[in-house]
Design a protein that fits this description.
The chain has 54 residues and is mostly helical. It is built from 4 helices and no strands. It has helices at 4-14, 19-26, 30-38, 48-52. The longest helix has 11 residues, at 4-14.
């Protein structure tokens, strides 16, 4: 079973976003997306609805 961070990255790619494009759409730094996908950080609660909306 894929981990949450792996599913996060898979969904981003399935939607056609690069890490940089995804970060821009969410108004965060690309390094933030890298940290989310590596498991070193998780999105803040206020960011989760915006992520789900993409």
């Amino acid at each position: 079973m894929a981990s949450r961070r792996e599913r996060f990255a898979e969904q981003r790619v399935a939607q056609g976003y690069s890490q940089e494009d995804f970060a821009e759409a969410l108004a965060v730094a690309a390094s933030t997306v890298v940290r989310w996908e590596s498991g070193r950080a998780t999105p803040q609660p206020h960011q989760r609805p915006r992520i789900a909306g993409l």
